[in-house]
Design a protein that fits this description.
159 residues; mainly alpha; Malonyl-Coenzyme A Acyl Carrier Protein, domain 2; two-stranded parallel sheet; 8 helices; 2 strands; 60% helix; globular
């Protein structure tokens, strides 16, 4: 027997036009899932991911429900096509909620409410607090450390 797992992504993988190929194939599973999500957050989520604006889609409260809904849609399509059930599910940060929904640990409607609130709270705590997180790929670790140390020392000068 072959075991496999599914890993669901966290915030940051959203973009305008995401899942377009599925929607343009007139896939009812995707439309129905996005319609269900839209009812819970009182926003046309399909329109947001297809048309933007990107600034709005990148807001945590919208990005997180968009990614959750996308992940659940893909999983529902997988099941509809008689896909094999994974032995394990996990997710990175926000993706943990997708894993919980897809493994039937929590209802999609509950996850939408939790994730939307989570995004709102994340936005609230960053108001007037400049923050930044970046993924650094393909750069020498020592160079990254030296830049971080330089920035840290300059910050002390401004405090």
């Amino acid at each position: 027997m072959t075991l496999f797992s599914m890993l669901f992504p966290g915030q940051g993988c959203q973009y305008i036009g995401m899942l377009s190929s599925f929607f343009y194939k007139n896939n009812k599973i995707f439309f129905n899932t996005f319609e269900e999500a839209s009812e819970h957050i009182h926003l046309d989520l399909f329109k947001l991911i297809q048309e933007g604006p990107l600034l709005k889609l990148n807001q945590s409260k919208y990005a997180q429900v968009a990614i959750l809904t996308s992940s659940v849609s893909i999983y529902r399509l997988w099941n509809n096509k008689n896909g094999k059930n994974p032995s394990f599910m996990s997710g990175h940060s926000l993706g943990e909620y997708s894993a919980l929904v897809c493994s039937d640990a929590i209802q999609f409607s509950d996850a939408l409410k939790i994730v939307f609130l989570r995004g709102q709270l994340m936005e609230k705590i960053t108001i007037n607090r400049p923050t930044l997180m970046q993924a650094i790929i393909g750069i020498d670790e020592k160079k990254v450390q030296s830049v971080c140390c330089l920035l840290k020392s300059k910050k002390k000068l401004f405090l």
